[in-house]
Design goal:
The protein has helices spanning about 35-50, 65-75, 130-140, 150-170, 180-190, 195-205, 210-225; strands at about 5, 10-15, 20-30, 55-65, 85, 95-100, 110-115. It has about 240 residues and is of the alpha/beta class. A five-stranded parallel beta sheet has the order 5-4-3-6-7, covered by helices on one side. Strand 1 and strand 2 (about 10-15) form a beta hairpin. It starts with a strand and ends in a 12-residue tail after the last helix. It comes from Streptomyces doebereineriae.
């Protein structure tokens, strides 16, 4: 069961109150900037984690301005579409509402997930959106993020290495994700959406002596949450 820290109280709460009950995830941003996109990214991760656990989710975006820019920027980062809040009414059968908001941002009463800002005002021109997504996943959401050249360079190297490895592992017979590894991944993302720990598990798997087929399936499984398109290079020349 996914549990997250409610920013209002500092206490962990269940993200799902009723089995298979609809959970509404509502992202609150004032306008378009990279910090707003980080809020949407955390909301996207929350939606993905809930769906992996079998929970139906309704994802909404509340913003006062620059909606088109927000939607376009989110799509570039691989964030799945959110409905605009002003265009919809209350959800039928909702059992839980979770608000994802920037630190210090306003949101209606309810469970609140706070996201620290991005301290880098502008991205380097031509930055790969998938690299930006990974760079934003590395730091805990409660910690301000930076997207300077060093951090983006490290993310670029990691993403390329993982995609090449996944493509190579895919050439070997498939093996199931080991129960211990699957448990570590699930424990991480169900424990307050601890994505940095998910990344640490993948680094351990990369360096382990697990069969290549098991490493492939592990990365494909984790990518359901991460959304990094780690299987993109399947079938490419060795």
């Amino acid at each position: 069961m996914l549990r997250i820290t409610d920013a209002r109280t500092g206490l962990p709460v269940d993200a799902v109150l009723a089995r298979r009950g609809l959970t509404r995830v509502e992202a609150h941003v004032r306008g378009y900037d990279i910090s707003a996109l980080r809020v949407l990214l955390v909301a996207d991760l929350l939606v993905r984690a809930l769906e992996i656990g079998g929970t139906p989710v309704w994802a909404l975006l509340t913003g006062d301005r620059e909606q088109a820019e927000l939607h376009a920027g989110a799509a570039a980062l691989g964030i799945r579409p959110f409905e605009d809040r002003r265009d919809v009414g209350p959800g039928w059968g909702e059992s839980q509402v979770v608000h994802v908001v920037g630190e210090g941002g306003a949101a209606p009463d309810g469970v609140r997930v706070a996201v620290a800002p991005v301290e880098t005002p502008d991205l380097p021109e031509g930055a790969d959106p998938a690299v930006v997504r990974l760079a934003l996943l590395v730091a805990p959401r409660s910690t301000p993020a930076r997207l300077d050249e060093a951090i983006l360079g490290e993310a670029h190297g990691t993403l390329g290495r993982w995609r090449r490895a996944v493509a190579a592992w895919a050439r070997h017979p498939s093996r199931p994700v080991p129960d211990k590894v699957r448990g570590r991944l699930r424990t991480a993302w169900e424990d307050d959406l601890d994505v940095p720990e998910v990344l640490r598990v993948l680094r351990w798997v990369e360096e382990s002596d697990l069969p290549e087929g098991a490493r492939f399936e592990t990365y494909a499984h984790a990518d359901r949450l991460l959304g990094l398109d780690l299987t993109r290079d399947l079938g490419s020349p060795a």
